[in-house]
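Morning. Coffee machine broken again, so started the prediction first thing and wrote up yesterday's gels while waiting. Chain of 305 residues, entered below exactly as on the submission form.
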Amino acid sequence: MTTQTLPPVTAPRGETTPSKPTRPLRPGSLIRFVKRAPIRVFLTVLVLVELYPLFWLLMGSFKSQSEFTSKPTWSLPESIGFENYVAAWTTGSIATNLWNSVAVTVPSLFLMLLLGVAAAYALEVMVWKGRNTILLAFVAGIMIPGQMILVPLFTVYFRSGLTSTLWPLIITYTVMGLPLTVFLMAAYFRAIPREIFEAATLDGSGMIRSFFSIGIPMMRNAIVTLALVQFFSIWNDLLIALTFTTKSSLATVQVGLLNFSDEYGSTQYGPLFAAISINVVGMLVLYLFLNKQIMAGLAAGAVKG
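Came back before lunch.
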């Protein structure tokens, strides 16, 4: 049995095959596009305003000293080289400064969160006389400017023999961050139903076990968010680090950036821009990573059931 193929159907001579009708643009879609156009333009301009300083910073890190002094600031570098980054990493001691910042930030953040969350748990979950007065004392600590206590603290650290170490920075950052940490964490604990802790107590759980098994897991998202805020506050600090740093080998990143200017006011702009780029890019990557973790945690929900 053979199969026969039919010839293709063609339109008669002089006639054209009707084309597929195009869908007309709806008036509602056009109106929505026109209404959203100003918002899109505004967001585009806002993104450009945010990205241009970063682009200018990265391009400046590849320029030579002569390009900074003889050419306009908006000019692009003549060549792409990593000499400035090598100078910032070796001559500028940016590697030592980064290590010092990490050695100061991590212990300060850990002690601040541990003591702050524990204090907030004791002030809001546990019932005892005088807890409201203690909470008001912590809140009052927020209103004390840090500049007022720098000189007395330096005197105490000097007499204690701690000025040649990183302990003055760790202690100062921990104590100055505790009031805000306790205040915010107390507000988060206040939003948790007290019946959860009461049920755990009826099941035989003690206060310490309830703190580590119930309080900290339920406050995980709040702790990560607060840790992110306090991390950038400590990392970007200059005043406290400059006050209590007595040796160049103990300088943090922000203090180390001052090393690119000599005593006569001359500044090595290329290595300075390279050091700032290393710091800024690292912080942006860390912020994007932690921000994604926070959003995922908030979407999942802190309390289930």
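Residues 91-260 form a domain with the MetI-like fold fold (CATH 1.10.3720.10). Going to sketch it on the whiteboard this afternoon.
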